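Q: Predict the assembly, please.
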Amino acid sequence: MKTNILLAGGYHKALSVGESLLQKGCQVTIVNADKRDCERLAETEGFKIIWGDASKEFILKEAQAAKMDIVIAMAPRDEDNFVICQICKKIYRVPKVVALLNDPKKTAFFYQMGIDRVVCAIGAITNIIEEQALMEKMTTMLPLTNGKINVLEIPILEQAGFEYTKLKDMNLPKDAIIGCIVRGEHSIIPGGDTMLMTGDIVILIVNGEVKEEVVEIFTGGKK
Amino acid sequence: MNLFGKKEKNAYIIIAGCGRLGAGLAASLSLKKKDVIVIDEKEEAFRKLAASYGGLTMCADAADLGKLTDAGIQRADVFIAVTDKDNTNIMAAQLVRQLYGVRHVLVRVYDEEKIRLLAGTGIEAFCPAELSEKEINRYMNWEDEDED
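A: Predicted assembly structure:
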């Protein structure tokens, strides 16, 4: 059976997410409060369009919210997305509700209130900007849990001057651990006596707060 | 509900939304020497406040965590959400209840159907249309006639 997905609010985001979901073979319903937006969205074949305020129970009923597998609330205002998700979760028992959020400080609150996934665009953009800024030092960063934890991949260059230094002598911050060292074809799970070599690639798991410090240590900026 | 009994004489009250209801409520509580702050997004909304209003005002989004902290939400005994947007009221009410454990949270909700969202949260919701309907029925004694 096709996955039923409801996109509530938003025009550009709804169009782009909706088209991508259609290609994946999902059944896409879009609710939008603006009549002209609805008409333009209706030009795409395959969408089911409902015109109305998605934070109203009867509009969600008309959109058959109860039959949805996933509801994604992406209206511009956080409070509208919050109410859309609450109605879908509490009244229509939708298995998975996703809310778009502007204010990163409310992420924890949204999760506490039973919303299954919270996507914070500003948080995501912040992470991308940070990653790009750190990229100069040839680092790849994978932010997890909204950037609280990061997985870093750092190549060890000669100028870092780590040849024959034991890991335990490197004074790494407490909130950083080396998960793995990749040396040529081999991967090494390191211990305190493991030594770094030029050309190694180090995979680290670090707390978001210390990531700059860790990058500096491994790229030779600070010892 | 006796919110302002002897025990809570100095209850700190935050009112979100300075519309006719918010402004009226703020003014009358201030006359009774209560500790009140009114929050509204629009500066000009505060012009509705009576000249005698002796409480505080704050120009901010009522659901902004930082601003709520500035307004002293941690020590608030009462939070009354009466902005003109149902969704803002509903979210702000649950936010202060969940994150700050404010004891008395009251919220105006125009759309009767949305009151269900607040069931079991300990938040007191009221709907103007429902209250007016009750008042009309009471005035006309229609409810009594039904019982006869």
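Residues 130-218 of chain A form a domain with the Alpha-Beta Plaits fold (CATH 3.30.70.1450). Chain A has seven helices and eleven strands.
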